[in-house]
Amino acid sequence: MTAPVKIAVFASGSGSNFQAIQEAIERGELHAKVELVVTDKPAAFVVTRAEKFGIPVLALNPKEFASKADYETAIIEALRECGVQWIVLAGYMRLISEVLLAAYPQRIVNIHPSLLPSFPGKDAIGQAIEHGVKVTGVTVHFVDEGMDTGPIIAQAAVAVIEGDREATEMAIHQQEHVLYTKALQQLLK
Ligand code: GRF
Questions:
Q1: Residue pair 79/100 in contact by the 8 Å Cβ criterion
Q2: How far apart are CA 138 and CA 18, in angstroms?
Q3: Rounded mean pLDDT of 80-103?
Q4: Which is deepest, 47, 116, 121, 130, by most CB within 10 Å?
């Protein structure tokens, strides 16, 4: 058996996708190891989740760096120290610059709660509901310098539950947890 693929999960918020990935690993469904959780929000709930699993956290405040390049360079150093091979964005609310993209070419993926190219950017679920679509969904894609613009890897449709944003959100998040694991199973092979 080959060694598990070393990944870092980047998150700025709740971290439910991080948890789904970690649980898939623990169930033996994903041959990977989360070496590091990286966050730009030291108070985010993902930090608590990571601690619960005993996974190291790198929490850096971008404002404490002179530039985005310096911020990302500090992240790259930490990733290299623990041999990270792939970067998995899961609710990381920052664009990735050329510095990090060059360090991990074709090795950074993201999940977005819509059927891209529809509804990129913030509050994709709200955008979809506002637009009145009946079906929205989830997209896993490679990351480039744009906002949710990289090549699409996997998609799944989710029906909008009319008049119930909370239920729609729940259905989308459930689908995210399934789709991200499936996509990573293929990518990390
Ligand atoms: C997810 O909806 C993901 O698609 C988006 O941000 C949200 C993160 O949720 N990019 P969580 O922090 O993984 O719970």
A1: no
A2: 16
A3: 98
A4: 116
Those residues whose C-beta lies under 8 Å from the C-beta of residue 119, and which sit 6 or more positions away, are: 127, 128, 131, 136
> Ligand 1: which atom is nearest the Cα of residue 19?
13
H or E segment at 152? Answer: strand 152-159
Atom of ligand 1 nearest to the CA of 44: 12
Mean pLDDT of 139-144: 98
pTM beyond 0.85, yes or no: yes
3-state secondary structure of 146: coil
Q: What is the chain's mean pLDDT, rounded?
A: 98
Ligand 1 midpoint to CA 66 (Å): 28
The angle, 0 to 180 degrees and rounded to 10, between the axes of the packed helices 16-26 and 165-187 is: 40
User: Residue of the nearest CA to atom 5 in ligand 1?
Assistant: 91
Q: Which atom of ligand 1 is nearest to the CA of 112?
A: 4
Report which protein residue has its CA nearest ligand 1's atom 1: 91
Instruction: Classify strands 5-10 and 86-89 as parallel, antiparallel or unpaired.
Output: parallel
- Please name the residue whose Cα sits nearest to atom 14 of ligand 1: 16
Q: Mind telling me the catalytic residues?
A: 112
Beta carbons of 41 and 8 less than 8 angstroms apart: no
Reply yes or no on whether the pLDDT at 52 is more than 80. yes
